[in-house]
Structures are given as structure tokens and as C-alpha cells.
Amino acid sequence: MHTLAEENYLKAIYKLSLIAENVSTNQIAAELATKASSVTDMLRKLADKLLINYTRYQGVSLTQTGEKVAVNIIRRHRLWEYFLVEKLHFKWDEVHEMAEEMEHISSNELIDRLDEFMGFPTRDPHGDPIPDCNGNFKTNDLKAISTVDVNTCGIISGVRDHSSAFLQYLEKQGLTIGKKITIKEIITYDNTVVLQMNNKDLQISRDVANNLLIAL
Amino acid sequence: MHTLAEENYLKAIYKLSLIAENVSTNQIAAELATKASSVTDMLRKLADKLLINYTRYQGVSLTQTGEKVAVNIIRRHRLWEYFLVEKLHFKWDEVHEMAEEMEHISSNELIDRLDEFMGFPTRDPHGDPIPDCNGNFKTNDLKAISTVDVNTCGIISGVRDHSSAFLQYLEKQGLTIGKKITIKEIITYDNTVVLQMNNKDLQISRDVANNLLIAL
DNA sequence: TTGTATTTTTAGACAAGTCTAAAAAAATTA
DNA sequence: TAATTTTTTTAGACTTGTCTAAAAATACAA
């Protein structure tokens, strides 16, 4: 249907669209670790195929078709991640690269059956919502720990940074999806956040607090 | 590790090597539905990487390394086919194309865990042996129905033709893996074979008899 | 064994996707 | 608003894998 490169561009544009409506050439280049000139070339191809809205120098947005394709890739990615963790017992920090390859397997019938096989999960191992076969999914109303008030409590429900390094750190601290925590104090000097979990205090840096999401 | 094209060439060469030691450029071209000139180009690349033994005009054979890679691709293909049929309940005639894509997912850890998840199966849905993680597998000592004597009986255990059309035909006739049959008669006029299965007679053409394998 | 047919290789071209370097447009700043 | 910086695009080149057409090697047949 679409080439590997096309799918990766659509996914990148989708991801960047969540932050700001219009996506710039340089943003895409950074996201895909490629050069702006390569991006420009590809944008013309995607525009020709009516997958994006593109006018020179004006940045891009996905068309309805483009967004559908992107959401479908994300659905495939997250279902494979769920499979790898729940069925093959990989750890949550080990699955991203594999799912990155698996998301390009083209059969939708395959993905729908995989979905059914696993009991139609709604969240992947990192807490991200899994779109259903029509592309619908709950938007995440999660908050970064760094944004909530002192004495708030909530359930760890997602991450912003999906890197192995970050996920391994969280694992080590016991800060995994589903854990209940209370924000006790924010140290003004360096914005270190003091949490309480299982009646024990735990300090996390501003960076970590920015990338760890809770449901209130 | 290796490109998609390289993997497909190695697989094709491996497959053809089972019939005759040395494989010709034209054979590979036919197998991959490409042109002889394209094959020549790729053979030089594979030889440079020490995956095949190649001298101009002399045909090719796999090196030890090349064979290892090829067997690993076959292992991946057959495990995914098994997964698709046993876990996602696809029919045996529906899985080839999907597995053709899935076999290129590169992680060996993934494949080893998939293998374990399914209980280390030794045969794929078409009766072909699945290499273990060291590349070892039982060679098929199966015989085409067309080659056995009248009154022989045996268990349907494999196919030579993996096309949907053939597999669907077998399914319709009930000629599936595991069924016990007896060869009753070979009609000399056109080599039609008369079988008995579940106490009923069944006629199959020479072509079908050539592509259906039994264990005695 | 010589000529013909077949197979294989070479030569040159093309598409996809990438790159560097330079030009053009837009944004920023003074 | 004019000058400078940043962003984006264009131009031209490279790689992988493919193709067609022609040349070279091998196989076959009289």
C-alpha cells in the first residue's frame, strides 16, 4: 500500500501534529534523523498522493486520508507492543524497536485478529491508547507530574519519553503503570519532586516529573 | 543485518539448492519473478559478502554463512505461519503472503520467544519442518502420492505446491494434514489416482498426486 | 567441429530515497 | 525598513535494486 519511508513520515507528522497543528520541515527532519532536503522531497510525494496538505515554506498537516493511515500505523505498533509484553514476556523497555519493524506488516486482517486474540486491549504497555479497528481511541487526559499541585494523588498511567534508558530508570524505582502516588513537595531550588508511594518517600528530578504522566 | 532483497535471494537459492546442488541465474530469476540481469547484479553483491560461492557462468551455491541465514529465514517464516494458523485461526491457504512479510522482522530473540510461546512446534501448517534455534530440523522423508505403489497406505503429511488454489482444493476434498489414505488404483489412461479415505473413494489428478506428500 | 541456440553477463538507464552545497524565502533583529 | 539569521527548497549526485538491449560465454546439434 505505502512504502516504509512513507509510513514513517506519516507517523512522524502525526506525532508532531499533536503538539502543534502545523508541522515544519525541520521538525520532521529532527524526528526522523534525516536532512531537511530529504524531507522536502518526500513531502512533495506525500502531497501528490493526497496524504498531506503542503504548500512550499508553509509547513504541513495530514489530510483525512493521511491521518487514517497514520492512526492505523500507531494501532499496529501498539498492538504489537502489547503482544510482545503480554504474550512473549518482553519488558516494556525492550519492545519499541521490534514494534517499529512489525508495524509495517501490511495486513489489516492480521491486526484485527491479533487484537481479538489479545482481548481488544485499550492501552499499550506504556499506557498509550490503542486505536480500535475504526481508528477511534480515548484521548489521554493525563497530566505530567511536574504540572500538578502538591498533595495531589493519582495513578501512574503513561510516559512521554519512551526511551529504554527512561523506562529502565522507572522500573528500577518501581514507578510503573498502575502504581498510586502522592505528590508531597516540590523543592523550589531545582524543581525536584518528592513523591510518596507505598508509604515511602521518593525524589525524582524535574526531567523525570515532566515525562511521567498520572491520571488523577 | 541483511536487506529485504538479499534475504529473498538467499531464500530462493536455498530452495532451489534442494533440487540441484548448483543453482543457475535463470532459475533464480524465475523463482523471484525478476530478470536474469538483475540476478547477476545481486549475485555479485552476495558473493562479495561471502554469502554465496559464485563464479561467472558457473551458477551458485550457498556458503555455510549463507545457508545459516537462509535457514533462519525459513525458521522465521514457518514459525509465523504456525502462529497465524494456531493462534489467530487463519486457514492454511491464507498465511503464506503474511509470513512472507513477517519473516523479515530481524530480532532472533523475538523468534525464539515466539517459538517458546507456541511450545516449540516442529512442523508448520503445511507439514514443513521448522528449524530449531540452532538451525537443525528433520529432513522430510515424505513421498509424493504419484510415486507410491497401489495398496500403499499412509498419512497426508505435506505439500509441494503452497499456492492458495491448491491448498483450497485439498481443503475442499478433505485432503488435509494428518488424514489417513490408501492408494487404491492408478488409472493408466491419464494417471488419475484413486484413493480411499474414511472408506470412501476419491479421484485425484496426476498433478495433485505429484504435489501431495504422505508419510508411509 | 562448426554453426546455432540458449544462458549469462555487461552496459547504460531509471525510480526511490538519501545526501551536500547553494539559492531562495521567511523570520528576526537592529 | 534594512540587514542578518534561520528555514526551506532546489540542483545535482549517490546507492540500492531494478530494467532493456546488446555482447560474451556456454551448450547443443548437425
Instruction: Classify the beta-strand content of chain A into a percent band.
Output: 15-25%
What are the secondary-structure elements of chain A, in order, as H or E?
HHHEEHHHEEHEEEHE
Parts with pLDDT < 50 across at least 5 consecutive residues of chain A: none
CATH superfamily annotation of the domain at 143-215 in chain A: Ferrous iron transport protein A (FeoA)
CATH architecture of the domain at 143-215 in chain A: Roll
- Strand tally of chain A, please? 8
Number of helical segments with 4 or more residues of chain A = 8
- For the terminal residues of chain A, how far apart are their CA atoms? 41 Å
Q: Identify the most extensive interface between protein chains.
A: A-B, 17 and 17 residues
Main CATH class of the domain at 143-215 in chain A: Mainly Beta
Q: What percent of residues of chain A adopt helix (DSSP H or I)?
A: 40-55%
Rough outline of chain A: globular
Subunit arrangement of the protein: homodimer
Mean pLDDT across all residues of chain A, rounded?
Answer: 97
Biggest sheet of chain A, strands in spatial order? 3-8-4-5-6-7
Structural Rg of chain A: 19 Å
Give a short account of the largest sheet of chain A.
6 strands, antiparallel
CATH topology heading of the domain at 143-215 in chain A: SH3 type barrels
Briefly note the structural class of the backbone of chain A: alpha+beta
